[in-house]
Amino acid sequence: MSFSGRKVHVDGQADDRAADCVRLRQMRGHGSKFGRKKEEAIAALLTQRNLEEAARSIGVSPNTLLKWQAIPEFQTAYREARRSTFRQAIARLQQGTSAAATTLLKTLIDPNTPASVRVRAAEVIFNQAAKAIEIEDIEARVAELEQHVEQTNAGYKK
Q1: pLDDT class for 155, splitting at 50, 70, 90?
Q2: Are residues 47 and 111 in the same domain?
Q3: pLDDT tens column, 88-115
Q4: Cα 96 to Cα 107: distance, rounded to the nearest angstrom
C-alpha cells in the first residue's frame, strides 16, 4: 500500500526508509558535492523493488544509477542508509518479543495444539534460554577482563 509515496504497513506505520534519506540530506548540509538527485537515488534504492524501478522513480537511467553506485561517497551514504533501515527493523522486531514469547508459551501449554507443534515450541524456548545464559556468561567474562585491564593500566600509571 502506498500513501504519499511512502509504504504503509498493515499495522498502519509508515515506512521510514525514505525519511532516513531526508535526514541524510539534512546532515550533509547545503553546498555538499553529494547532490540531491543522488540522495533521492538512495531513498529510491531503499524503497523500490529493484534498480530499474529505483532509477525510473527518480528520472535517471539504470546505467546512471549503476555508475553512481561505483562512487565511494555514494557507497558510504547508501551503506549508512541501509544500516539505519536495518537498525529500525530490528528495533521493531524487538518490540514484538514479548508477544512472541507469550505465543510460544501459550502454544506449549495448549492441550489442543498438536504434539509436534508443542515440541517445537518447547525446543525454541530451550534454545533461546540457552542462548541467553551463554550471552550472560560472555558479558560477565568481558566485564571481568575489562576490570583486569583497567587495574593493570592503573598499575602502570603509578
Answers
A1: confident
A2: no
A3: 999 999 999 999 999 999 999 999 999 9
A4: 16
